[in-house]
Amino acid sequence: MIYLTRRERFNAAHRLYRPEWDDEKNLEVFGKCSNPNWHGHNYNLFVTVKGEVNPELGFVVNLKTLGEIIRAEVTEKLDHKNLNTEVDFLSGIIMSTENLAIRIWDQLEPHIKQLGCELHCIKVIETENNFVEFYGH
Amino acid sequence: MIYLTRRERFNAAHRLYRPEWDDEKNLEVFGKCSNPNWHGHNYNLFVTVKGEVNPELGFVVNLKTLGEIIRAEVTEKLDHKNLNTEVDFLSGIIMSTENLAIRIWDQLEPHIKQLGCELHCIKVIETENNFVEFYGH
Amino acid sequence: MIYLTRRERFNAAHRLYRPEWDDEKNLEVFGKCSNPNWHGHNYNLFVTVKGEVNPELGFVVNLKTLGEIIRAEVTEKLDHKNLNTEVDFLSGIIMSTENLAIRIWDQLEPHIKQLGCELHCIKVIETENNFVEFYGH
Amino acid sequence: MIYLTRRERFNAAHRLYRPEWDDEKNLEVFGKCSNPNWHGHNYNLFVTVKGEVNPELGFVVNLKTLGEIIRAEVTEKLDHKNLNTEVDFLSGIIMSTENLAIRIWDQLEPHIKQLGCELHCIKVIETENNFVEFYGH
Amino acid sequence: MIYLTRRERFNAAHRLYRPEWDDEKNLEVFGKCSNPNWHGHNYNLFVTVKGEVNPELGFVVNLKTLGEIIRAEVTEKLDHKNLNTEVDFLSGIIMSTENLAIRIWDQLEPHIKQLGCELHCIKVIETENNFVEFYGH
Amino acid sequence: MIYLTRRERFNAAHRLYRPEWDDEKNLEVFGKCSNPNWHGHNYNLFVTVKGEVNPELGFVVNLKTLGEIIRAEVTEKLDHKNLNTEVDFLSGIIMSTENLAIRIWDQLEPHIKQLGCELHCIKVIETENNFVEFYGH
Known about the structure:
Six copies of one chain form a homohexamer.
Chain A: E1 2-14, H1 23-30, E2 39-51, H2 63-78, E3 81-82, H3 97-113, E4 118-127, E5 130-134
Helix pairs in contact in A: 2-3
């Protein structure tokens, strides 16, 4: 068993808030991250898959294919977007890095399985000072 | 003459567009950066000042003071904000990295002068792949 | 279960030595790291906590609170300090990165528990070429 | 139990291909990585060992010794070399990052054991966008 | 006048040598960089252009166009290639980072001019420890 | 004319203070950087030289030689040392990054000249948030 990680990036806007709370309450709980006019980040996404090395090909999975799937299923849908309002697979959640990582897992997992390996970890780096890792449900 | 650089950071939303153009025309010219629903970045700001080394104190300017001024005059006004709609000193411009760097120069320059040194360069890094440097008018 | 990591930094002096050995013996065992006149580092501390996502708030723990606790309990006590002589919770140990990580764990763990989540890992990066990770006793 | 990681680097040439396939077939499967005239990378190698902290010395293993072993057994044999043709312990494999990590594990493991600790992970970073981790057979 | 920089990357093989010298003489002068079996690097290329901010568009030059030109004229011709043998615009030189930067300048400069701005600097980073900057003939 | 930069690193202890002032006065002026028990940093030193490309050899100066000179004349004298008390060429100054850069310039410049090129810039990075550049007297 070996672990292979691919990085992809996306730049997006978001805010943290509960729609049933007013701005004051959201500000109290989520601080400046709740700004109703949005803010944004350069997100770094690290997708780690695990599997056996294919003895004929020398790799777990073709990196080019893996990158294409991550871009097609995830980062092209997030890049230069508003994460709260424009992404179908992110609807109905508080737009935290935690929930973002979990939804990216759900979005990617069936596609990784079809490659003959297993999704191991979704790591989302929001800033140089904080990131989230999700290893599955 | 010696050059001292201080980094400060801010995370913000923006879009590139001309208000007199419709979305289609903006999309044609500015691409995905014109998304009407905003996107965002982790911006890195490098402020370089130049001056003689103060012989009594060993530095051009007190770094703590320099950092406080940059935060008070610039990054606290930009952090977790919408650069297009919420920042007084950024009004009336296309919100490009170039214009952002120029307006940060204009905002900081009088304050740097009062420290007894000279503003040399404003460098704004928008992503790991592009940045702008402005050395004054 | 999801993992959230917060980085904080501190710059400090230290040396590796056993007080009951003379300088020659310390030099033989610890090399230049035993310099009696000290040396120092820019330390990067990564604190990883794990827990369930709070369904109402969307996060494991409020990042702002987590950062405040790490700074109050750890990095403000270490920053611009001599790790061998000035930090109460570091007394009585050889000032290696390993022991530093373990003592930071002991210092932080009760406070993390009170946040309703679990401390998972203390990672201390001493230089770009070496770091230590501790996952608990 | 604590984990200590040491980074060493090497710059090398390689290509991905199966010798029994012609260039066309190799190109189809491995893409531009199969270029018969070679390409290359700045590789970053992170070696993680685990063990108990030696109570007399404060560390799992002497970092200087660990670095010397990694350089003598691995990186000095790989640096400024052609990984496909010049390295004895890399013969007979497709020169993927996966196989490289596994062979580095096999090369290092007996030497780490002699230090009184255990090899935990070999991480090989090929580019800023992909890396491999191997935790043993 | 403002300065805009775009990064592009390429991974390539090369060696330093003079064809009229034998391997021994090349080794004596160029060290391990002269390995006849090649070695390689992850190169980072930073292209800086300067110009006035276009008042209608807010930028010196469209970053997307700039990136496309750099990739079409330079990095796609270098990526996963052998710099000594496979690149037309690199023929007849010792394949040092200095000569590489100069030839990239010559290759890009006419195309930058057609964009209505000026090429200012070609920076080529070969490793984390060395890079070259060329500002023109 | 082309510019070549070499990075070397050193980890050291220091403090900012004037010996004729008491600790209270030093604290008032220099803040926590004046801690009498020292603190320290991982310093990054970037040495930039300029010159013509040697047409026979393809480089401005042999990087290996340049690195050896920087290590012999500067970083080996600073690494794992107390900058205030242990380094002959740093005596009699306030140990600021500015003064450190100037003294490194003075220390290196005659040796660079003997290589047939010119010292262009000494850049000293003290933390990820501040650095100093000196281009000569």
